[in-house]
Amino acid sequence: MEGFKYITLLLLLCAALSLGLGIGKQRLKEGWYDGGGIFVALILLTISPSALRNSIQNRQLEKLFKVNSNTIKVNVVRDGKPQQIPIFEIVAGDVVFLNTGDQVPADGLLFDGHQLQVGEYSLTCWEGVNA
Question: Which residue from 119, 93, 125 is spatially nearest to 104, judged by alpha carbons?
Answer without folding.
Answer: 119
